[in-house]
Every structure is written in C-alpha cells, then in structure tokens.
Amino acid sequence: MQKAVLYLVSVVFVLVAAAHVVRLLLGVEIVIQGWVMPLWFSGIGVLIPLLLAWLCLRAAKR
C-alpha cells in the first residue's frame, strides 16, 4: 500500500513540474492581487517537484 501511494505522489509531482514547464515555454503571466509572478518562480517550480518525485520513487523501490 505504501509503495502505491509513493508512486501516486510521484506522478502528482511530475504533473506539477510539467505544468510549470508549460508556463515557462508559453510565457503565461500569473497575477495574484496585482502582483505579477516572475517566470523564474516556475524554474523553481520545476526543480523542487522533480526532486520530490525522484525521492518518492527511490523510497518506493526500497
């Protein structure tokens, strides 16, 4: 059961990273209460979820 959850969480993290990659490629502007989120936030939004997905996959294979 725990391995299945870790695989599922990995898929979710990869989907989050993919959404950030799409934002980077298309240059989509995100505005939160008048503040424009810089594109480099999505760079971080790609790296951190991919790292977390990799860690979850590694834990699932143990």
Summarize this structure briefly:
This protein is 74% helix and 10% strand. The chain is built from 2 helices and 2 strands.
Descriptive report:
The protein is mainly α. It has one domain. Helix content is 74%, strand content 10%. The protein is built from two helices and two strands. The protein has helices spanning 2-26, 40-60; strands at 30-32, 35-37. It has a two-stranded antiparallel sheet. Strand 1 and strand 2 (35-37) form a beta hairpin. Helix 1 (2-26) packs antiparallel against helix 2 (40-60).
The topology string of helices and strands comes to HEEH
- What radius of gyration results from the CA coordinates? 14 Å
**Number of individual domains:** 1
End-to-end separation: 13 Å
Residues in β-strands, percent: 5-15%
Judging from the principal axes of the Cα atoms, what is the shape?
elongated
What share of residues is helical? over 70%
Number of E-state strands: 2
Q: What is the averaged pLDDT score?
A: 95
- State the helix count: 2
Q: Unreliable runs, pLDDT <50, ≥5 residues?
A: none
Largest sheet: 2 strands, antiparallel
Pairing-aware structural class of the strands and helices? Answer: mainly alpha
Q: Which strands sit side by side, in order, in the main sheet?
A: 1-2
